[in-house]
Design a protein that fits this description.
This protein is mainly alpha-helical. The chain has a domain at 2-187: SecY subunit domain (Preprotein translocase SecY subunit, Orthogonal Bundle). The protein has helices spanning 2-10, 12-31, 41-50, 54-62, 66-69, 78-93, 95-101, 104-134, 144-171, 176-186, 189-202, 207-229, 265-281, 290-295, 301-310; strands at residues 231-237, 240-243, 246-249, 252-258. A two-stranded antiparallel ribbon has the order 1-4. It has a two-stranded antiparallel ribbon with strand order 2-3. The chain is globular.
Length: 311
């Protein structure tokens, strides 16, 4: 791996893309510490502890912990992911939209435009749900101006991340949206490792726990790699044909079929679909209805089955 990176670094074009990607990652991390005005972080921490659930955990996971900090990136790219799901479902439900999606590069641009419009609309609703529903008690100075500023900051931060993902894809290395999701997921890893090491030093973490965690981590990595890289080769035999006095064809080849062809997207889709009703319920007084908490979150037994079916 290090040899591959070293060889890539020697190529000027790839080196420029790698440096650009790293700079954009720095911008992303800086945005995670820029606070939204008129928000009491202590109250936010208390509300998150008392309202721990599928929606809050999902939003904070995608946001890389910035929801707890109530930074300008608190919404992350969750509205864009949800809009992508909705648009993809609509391309199946409406043949006309499906034809547009299959209309080459121009069709892809139109679908991307519809997705961004949907992301803005969903972003407004989700920002309102956070400002006026989930964290309404954390607002220091209540008022229309304060609420509008908070909603605008959340929406602008989310759309900036969408733009950041696109520019990384265009001028950097890899898929920008996937990189942002990855950064959000692993951003808390150093803190967790530090807490674990501190527990080892102070003696609060036993030797059996250390061995168990290390073995579990190794096993998870091995299983994930095996499933991700595993494939079955289906043999394909081409028929022979005679052209003039020569015989062509007859070669045997294979079609590789991956064990996990869909990757991690079903998990993201299922989590987003389950979180949508919770997000909308925050716009209304009374909080999240009991039936949503029971049937549409992974904390409920029925919700686990629904989540598994969606996957």
């Amino acid at each position: 791996m290090f040899k591959t990176l070293s060889n890539a670094w020697r190529i000027k074009e790839i080196r420029s893309k790698m440096i650009f990607t790293l700079l954009m990652i720095v911008v992303y991390r800086l945005g995670n510490i820029i606070p939204i005005p008129f928000i009491d972080k202590k109250v936010v921490s208390q509300l998150m502890s008392s309202n721990a659930g599928g929606l809050v955990n999902l939003l904070d996971l995608l946001a890389g912990g910035s929801l707890k900090q109530m930074s300008v990136f608190a919404l992350s790219i969750y509205p864009y992911i949800t809009a992508s799901i909705v648009v993809q479902l609509l391309t199946i439900a409406f043949p006309r939209l499906g034809e547009i999606a299959r209309d080459g590069e121009m069709g892809k641009k139109k679908v991307a435009k519809y997705t961004k419009i949907g992301a803005v609309i969903l972003g407004i609703f989700e920002a309102m749900a956070i400002a006026n529903g989930l964290f309404a008690k954390a607002i220091v100075a209540n008022g229309y101006i304060q609420s509008a500023l908070i909603i605008t900051s959340l929406l602008a931060g989310s759309m900036f991340l969408v733009w950041l993902g696109e520019i990384i894809t265009e001028k950097g290395v890899g898929n920008g949206i996937s990189i942002i999701i990855f950064l959000g997921i692993v951003s808390n890893l150093p803190t967790q490792i530090g807490t674990f090491i501190y527990g080892i030093i102070t003696g609060t973490v036993g030797i059996l726990t250390i061995i168990g965690v290390v073995l579990a981590a190794i096993a998870i990595v091995v299983i994930v790699v095996l499933i991700n890289e595993g494939e079955r080769k289906i043999t394909v035999q081409y028929a022979k044909k005679v052209v003039g006095r020569k015989m062509y064809g007859g070669q045997a080849t294979h079609i590789p079929v991956k064990v996990n062809m869909s990757g991690v997207m079903p998990v993201i889709f299922a989590s987003s679909l389950l979180a949508m009703p919770q997000t909308l319920s925050l716009l209304f007084s009374g909080g999240t209805p009991n039936w949503i908490s029971s049937y549409l979150t992974v904390e409920g037994s029925v919700g686990v089955y629904v989540y598994s079916i969606l996957n």
